[in-house]
Amino acid sequence: MGQIKVEKNVGGIEGLAVITPTVHGDDRGYFMETYNENDMKEAGFDINFVQDNQSSSTKGVLRGLHFQKHFPQCKLVRAVRGDVFDVAVDLRSDSKTYGKWYGVELTAENKKQFLIPEGFAHGFLVLSDEAEFCYKVNDFWHPNDEGGMAWNDPEIGIKWPHVTGSYPGNADASGYALDDGTKLTLSDR
Amino acid sequence: MGQIKVEKNVGGIEGLAVITPTVHGDDRGYFMETYNENDMKEAGFDINFVQDNQSSSTKGVLRGLHFQKHFPQCKLVRAVRGDVFDVAVDLRSDSKTYGKWYGVELTAENKKQFLIPEGFAHGFLVLSDEAEFCYKVNDFWHPNDEGGMAWNDPEIGIKWPHVTGSYPGNADASGYALDDGTKLTLSDR
Ligand SMILES: Cc1cn([C@H]2C[C@H](O)[C@@H](COP(=O)(O)OP(=O)(O)O[C@H]3OC[C@@H](O)[C@H](O)[C@H]3O)O2)c(=O)[nH]c1=O
Ligand SMILES: Cc1cn([C@H]2C[C@H](O)[C@@H](COP(=O)(O)OP(=O)(O)O[C@H]3OC[C@@H](O)[C@H](O)[C@H]3O)O2)c(=O)[nH]c1=O
């Protein structure tokens, strides 16, 4: 039926895509297909998603950056409530854009979805008071296979929006924080 | 990993199930797997979902009852925001419980999911000011194949909760309303 708008290779990184579904509004509210295997195949994405996840987090929470080493996951991510800044870092050893990152604001309102192929680190920062985040993955969770990298790794240099204080760039100050439990202070937007 | 609780054959209707995922809460909020193909297979459900839908509706909106005639859909439904009363009606001609209905309250808080096999009519009534509803289906949308039945069909006799006025039972009064655009008046809960 072709109900998606697809922006391919966003940020000049091959394989990263931003997908926007068609929203059918009426008196009752709205309806949208948030995933359609045929539409995805037509767009060139033949992916077998096997697990769906949902997390809820408060403002300033940064989940990530995560990846699985031997069981890499392709992810299709979106916000169902609130706003997040979502980031993928290219860790594909054979990639021309190895080490490059791309970020996109995903909100319940813009309904954008971010497609992140296997071989990337992924994470997101919650910009609204609360955010509910949903995503599909094409391989199961392998806790012992998980890898993490610092959200503020100076060699990657991700520009997380609205973060106040010594960040970014001030890697000396407090060192940089790996992974879980990171909660940042955000300025007003 | 076995992260779901499964209640099978709810309402005495074979194949209907209520599924509750494990919620992992922590300082940041929570995380849950809302779908895991392996867990489902272990529970005896080998279903190939190909499309995900999301709709938003205001209080009193009743979406349904719908089914596809030649391309029946198995559905796995849940509320991601607000509360709905979700109903399935057994229309399987060879079923011992043909014509029987079962309803369950699905809320963002109870995180329950309702698994409805092929051969059922399905619909839901929004009980909260707004509700956001997500579901997976195992066949695509075939608009020309759609069937509908009245939410207040007296032969089925669904007891929709909190509905005020001439309903239920008063089928004489205004006749009964088929399908789309139904908006009911609800009493306080
Ligand atoms: C990823 C995952 C986690 N869990 C459990 C383990 C913990 O009890 C709880 C939270 O796990 P975390 O790894 O801390 O979750 P989170 O920080 O949200 O990580 C996720 O967010 C960023 C995503 O990039 C990444 O895929 C995923 O690891 O959920 C599961 O049961 N299944 C899973 O698939
Ligand atoms: C079901 C469906 C609908 N649409 C479009 C058609 C309309 O423009 C709009 C709304 O369609 P409706 O059929 O009116 O949606 P709704 O009343 O929400 O019906 C749904 O809710 C109850 C569910 O039981 C049923 O599967 C589904 O038909 O969305 C799609 O693009 N794809 C779909 O899969």
From TrEMBL, chains A, B:
The active site is at 66 (proton acceptor), 135 (proton donor). It comes from the Bacteria. Pathway: Carbohydrate biosynthesis; dTDP-L-rhamnose biosynthesis. SUPFAM superfamilies: RmlC-like cupins (SSF51182). Keywords: Isomerase. GO terms for molecular function: dTDP-4-dehydrorhamnose 3,5-epimerase activity. GO terms for cellular component: cytosol. Belongs to the dTDP-4-dehydrorhamnose 3,5-epimerase family. Homodimer. This is dTDP-4-dehydrorhamnose 3,5-epimerase. It comes from Lactobacillus corticis.
